[in-house]
């Protein structure tokens, strides 16, 4: 907090310093982009930060991804805890500990203390996702892991540079426990150089404005954000809002979704997020430690305050309560590498609650991030035989109040991510992309439809001893609509082995699956959920979606009740049958409550007979099945129907 006995900075100096701190972090990012070794970091799976001498966050960059920035102050404070009193200029420390406020083991942070002579001014921190940290599978995402010992190398605070000298022994030990040690060493130097960039910029500001002014600026930018957030919260009505979202399953506990319950209370100028009643930790990596849960809360709430900078001032108004031992408060040694699955559920739940408070910013559920990881021997590249393929795809965000959702956008956990270029992946990995396009009918129908997802199909080329893992969710807790909008579609991956004619559905979560040269793997990403009753969507907008190939003629009729006729597809000429549309919409209005409450086993039988598809099952009948066998998932369906009744059915006129 600012020392109240001293005069505040003049407005011009304050504004210059505030923006200079942010620019310094942006320059760290530019340094990493130009010096990193890992393809995953090059695609912006990284974040940087500037901290004061106590470890509090002073500034983040303009493209730093949300999932990281709410945790950087925790890991900085843990470094201080371990090395306080021993730090010297030129030191750089590493940490990736999720139980000390980090995210997961793959996110490795390098922290540099910044000194002016013998005075500690603060810290710069660079966080990058290393594509492999050891563990039982390539990429370090083993969904069957129950504890951290099968996940990755846990790095508690350790010195990597001592007064500017590289600690080869420590760095070598860490790198030797990964599947790509050369890249790890390269990324260490890249991140260390990024922290040096911020140090250089802070000392430049000290030379220009003086040490005391810079330190005061670090305090005042936090106070400024705190003051602004408190003022805005105070202007809102006191009250309590609550909701629930789900993780698909606990692989070791049978069928049934895993609830994450959140109750948000505004009282005066503070906000409490209460996770009481959330499910205990599960026998998978889909658990979140407290630091990541805090970050999810911050990321979700910050979405509704886009104009404010983000630093520790924002955090001061937030309180979080969570029962011990739940999926949102996992402790050592519970597995947490897949924390992103509860993370995005928390974000979307917070979107839903804040949409009630700020309806002008209201938004439906966004698609779920997915990771595809494969590793093995690259027969094309004898000089670097081990490959580590690590890829994510964009998808659709939820429909908004008065506007369709964003199409083909990176996940809400980190919009600073890039959509990985096919050419880059093909150069560094034995893969070839045969299809990558916007996925028709992936968007959740609504008065304002969700954004569209994508379909990507790839082939594994010359390789040996390769295995694949897929880390995703929302195969069962399907992306939901709000205010009467409809869900999107189930996530999942299919594979067609070399020499086989039919593809095999593997679903949304598996690890260590053997693959070989010639195998073709295809995965869609869901669109966003719909906002508002799809029967209220302007038929002309539906026709435009058909022209754009976002919606098929068949689903225009089934989801929107709009009858579109093809005149000349090559010329994009389609027309609406107005009379038939009015009749069909009336029929759907008369029947849809019955569809939504039809006995689930009858729906499952229709699916098994091929009379309906997965989109019909989730959008019309609110039934969740094993999408391969057609087996009814009774408990999951009951949970999904409860959500469907609240978010969709209750808003139909």
UniProtKB/TrEMBL annotation:
Pfam families: Hydantoinase_B. Residues 10-534 form the Hydantoinase B/oxoprolinase domain. InterPro entries: Hydantoinase_B, Oxoprolinase-like. GO terms for biological process: glutathione metabolic process. GO terms for cellular component: cytosol. One of its GO terms (molecular function) is 5-oxoprolinase (ATP-hydrolyzing) activity. This is N-methylhydantoinase. It comes from Oceanicola granulosus (strain ATCC BAA-861 / DSM 15982 / KCTC 12143 / HTCC2516). The lineage of its organism: Bacteria, Pseudomonadati, Pseudomonadota, Alphaproteobacteria, Rhodobacterales.
